[in-house]
Amino acid sequence: MSNNLHQSGVKLLRLLGRNAELVMDAYLNGSVDEQNLEPAAVNKLTESGILWRPEPNEPLRLSRNVRALLEDGLKDERNRQINANVGSALATIKTIAGHYREARASVDYSAAEAYLADLSEQVYSFTESLRYSVRVLWGRINNEFGYVGSLSAKIRENELAQSQVTDLLNGLEMFEFAELSELAGDIRELRRLLVTSLQETLTNCAQELSVVQSRLLELLGRFRQIQGRTRLLKGWLLFTDLHPEYEVADHVAHKQVPVLFNQAEALLAPAAADVNNIHHEADLMQVVASIRTISREQQALPVAEPSVVEVGATEEFDIPDNPLKQAVEQYFCAVIESGQNQSALDYLSEQGLPWDRESWIFQVIGGFEGLSEEHKQFFALEPLGHEHEIYDGNFIIQDVEIGLR
Amino acid sequence: MSEIIATGELIERLLRGEFICRTTFEDGWRALKSPATLDKVENYLNQINRTVAQAAEGEVFFAGYVNLGDNERKVISAQFREICQSLIPLVEWLVLVQEASGQDAPLSQGAPVRLTELQTRIEDTPAFREQLAKLSQYRLFGSSASSVDGQIKLVFKRLVDLGYLVKPNPEKQIFIATGKLDYLYEVIRFIDETESLSLEAQAETATQRELI
User: Fold this and answer.
1) Probe site for chain A from B104, B188, B190 (most A CB atoms < 10 A)
2) ipTM exceeding the 0.85 mark
3) CA nearest A136: which of A77, A84, A86?
């Protein structure tokens, strides 16, 4: 028999595989367009329970189980089916546990083994479906019901999810572990399945569900707030359209001004740079370095009126030589003529020249330094003076002597 | 040192009349959320008759007055008048953005607006174009441009100047709504509640009538 079952199962899966395209189309569109299909294929699919027809004139649809398989396998977020029917699962589990106890008591081990396998299957599929439900709910919360477009649809989805959570929690309350533990008695396998494994899962799920519930409420509050804002804006426009003469009442004229409108005047101007703060030196230098001279004034000046410019021969002009400089030249010439060393101050007094002694000496030194290298070679300049009495290395020049080399 | 700079900037911006929110100045906003810094800033502001005021459930902070003398009242009245005058243009703009971008929620703090996308949608829909042309001519925006491009750019620029939007990257035409918009909702809600206008109910009935 199990061989038969195996074969027909493989056949069914093959059938699904062969019609994969069709099944997926049906999954996405909701129904099958029979006109483009071969009647034989449709018949086969209908007979094996993959497709079914809800009403005589309705198009064919995917059966619930195949749909659930796909939703689960594809992690499709539109899937909002939650099996909240805890009661029937509980009843089934209790019934099979009763069968198992009876079979054990009558020492029918093969029957007992079969019942135990069945029972494990029931318990595990129940806990799995519970976990799955929680996962689906989380999925919906995490993408904030992204599979529906409008905000009001989100709110309705949220309300649906909340009612499902409530149903699940109510269902979980039906589990009474005292009763289950009595049913399990001292049979180790039963205790493991009915008490340990179930209890652990149920406690986890109940905890998670209460978190889910609070998150859903929070989300609902946010949706409502957003919806409230939209309505507020629309309502405001409607109202001002209907009452064009409307003016907002003077809410700040009261003695107690609402906090909302108590807004101080902007008063702060930027602080000035403190050039004496050495910490700022580098920054300020950078600021200064980046300043470019932009003279807007020049641009603003009106262009001067054109005027006639006469272009004639340049007048001859002379820059008269400085008499002091000429006198120094005379002094050099006198030295060359006499061939004798002569002090500058002596020359000054001999010739009875009118210049100040100090400026005369400076001009003489300057004149000597100003000679070209070629002419400089003929002369020697000897400073005359004395060391400073107190400070070493300071030589005070009182006179200079020019001579020929 | 860095703490001084942080609270310094915070106080400075508050005194400049800015609204501090997570979008405009996240560090400052966080600092104000901590009671210690809030106390410090509050103490400082109290010396010049200012206080840290908050709105939208602590999402925005701004500087208010501690004591209201005649001068302060004058300032508040002027500001109140200003915000009342800008309510209609701003609400029209918010509704336009919401409808043109096909969103459920009106703009609120942190929501991005892609200007080029919005502009294309408005240009493609005559009704939106009309709405934009109408609202850009309000005194708040004061546009005299005839093209959608000119109108929308000016409106957005004004909104950035007024502190309702920020433009994080000058190269990109992406704007982010600030907490001042949340403040605006609160103002409308306040007016609605105090004057019992029941705006939400009116909008609700209007939508239901449309559905029928």
Assistant:
1) B104
2) no
3) A77
Which residues, at least 6 apart from A230, have a Cβ–Cβ distance to it below 8 Å?
A151, B98, B104, B105, B106, B203
Structure-block tokens of residue A358? 């100090």
Q: Which two tokens stand for residue A111?
A: 């029957």
Shared domain for A94 and A187, answered yes or no, is: yes
- The residue out of A50, A76, A102 marking a domain boundary is A76
Angle between helices B126-136 and B70-100 (to 10 degrees): 170
* Pairing status of strand B60-65 against strand B50-55: antiparallel
Cα–Cα distances (Å) from A337 to A199, A252, A342, A399, in that order, read 133, 105, 11, 21
Q: Indicate whether A380 and A241 sit together in one domain.
A: no
Of B17, B55, B192, the CB nearest to A266: B17
How high is the pLDDT of residue B1? 44
Residue B203 has its nearest CB partner, among A234, A261, A262, at A234
Q: Is residue A389 classed as helix, strand or coil in its secondary structure?
A: coil
* Domain count within chain A: 3
Q: Which residue from B181, B130, B129 is spatially nearest to B159, judged by alpha carbons?
A: B181
pLDDT in tens, A217-256: 988 888 888 888 888 888 888 888 888 888 788 888 877 8
- My answer on whether A143 and A210 are in the same domain is yes
The pLDDT tens digits of the residues spanning B149-181 come to: 889 989 999 999 989 999 988 888 899 999 999
Polymer length in residues for chain B: 212
Does some domain include residue A275? no
Distances (CA, A) of A68 to A64, A74, B15, B132, B195: 6, 10, 61, 48, 53
With a threshold of 0.80, does the pTM exceed it?
A: no
Q: Taking residues A276-299, what's their average pLDDT?
A: 75
Choose the mutation target among A224, A260, A283 for the interface with B, i.e. most B CBs under 10 Å.
A260
Q: Are residues A68 and A102 in the same domain?
A: no
Q: How far apart are the C-alpha atoms of B107 and B118, rounded to whole Å?
A: 13
Measured in residues, chain A has a length of 405
By DSSP bridging, strand A61-62 and strand A51-52 are: antiparallel
Residue type, A147: Y
Say what the pLDDT of residue A81 is.
65
CATH code for residues B2-65: 1.10.10
Q: Give the percent of chain A with pLDDT over 70.
A: 91
pLDDT, tens digit (0-9, with 9 covering 90-100), for A307-344: 777 766 666 666 677 788 888 888 888 888 887 888 88
Contact present, A326 and A362 (Cβ < 8 Å): no
